[in-house]
Amino acid sequence: MATQVLTLKKAAGGEKLAHPISNSMRQTFLRVNRNTLAKDVLDMVKWSELPEEMMGIVFVHADDGRHLGFVRLTALLRAKSDQPVHYLLQGETLFVRESTDQEEAARLLQKHDVALLPILSESGAMRGVLTFDDAMDILDEETSDDIYWKAGVGDVTHYQDAVRSEKLTSGGIGYPVKVRLMFLMVTLAGGMLVGGVIDHFEGVLESLVALAIFIPLVMDMGGNVGTQSTTIFARGLALGHIDLKQFFRKHLLRELRVGLVMGVLLATLAGAIAWAWQGAPNGIPMLGVVVGVSLFVSVVTASVLGFLLPYIMLKIGVDHAPGADPFITTIKDFTGLAVYFLMAGWLLGVSG
Q: What is the CA radius of gyration of the chain?
């Protein structure tokens, strides 16, 4: 029985493909022969100088040094004092090799209810352990790397994104003001275009004042949906839940389905309210259809753009954090209101 000297090697930097778990393992752990008695193992734990988080599990090896599994401290406390530890073995197949990628090892440890994951040599001898805390640190570090490598843009884009984030949230205000104003100019120009749409259909509004009541609904609902989508995309990207290689055939199609379902439900509800509130009492029952169809188009458009625009900006190297929402706002406002007034002119028989 022996307690090895504590050493913690830092994960090697450099290329994404070279992150073996051996670079992140701790070489301090409790390990005993398969024939060691439970009472002797408990004495070993009692007098060990290792941190508490390293003593919940004792690893077991065969006479030839091969790793056999582990014994939990709780099992040792319940066992008969003269019982050999190989009767208490668990986790015979729960291990990784030294060459295993550190992210794969970290996710394996996260999946199982153990505090330590044994790391074996190719011959089956135990070389070190991965702790739960180290596994969580690895996952935090690896998530962004995986995202950008899946996108084919590697560490350069990751570095650029980190620099942009730091400059937007720290230091002088010149950079964030410049970047955010640049994208808000898009919103300003878009607002003028939307104003042009309203001006073009001024006669429609004058003919049917009730239409003005639902303009904020069409515009604001689309804006909220777009913001939801961009936030979900950003969080999914950060946590590794979005694989950019499968963006179009998986993630964008899924978001389109989500947008269609939300659009149908919201359009039905809003259309019914518009009909009951302004349509039926004023003798314009088709007002509910106009509101519903316009809201449906606005919601679906914003939902799809909320995923598509950040993806395009990421691919072309533009910072999507401050840039996606202004474009979404402009496009969904323009299309939503255009559909709104065109539907009103067609279904309600009013024109400018």
A: 31
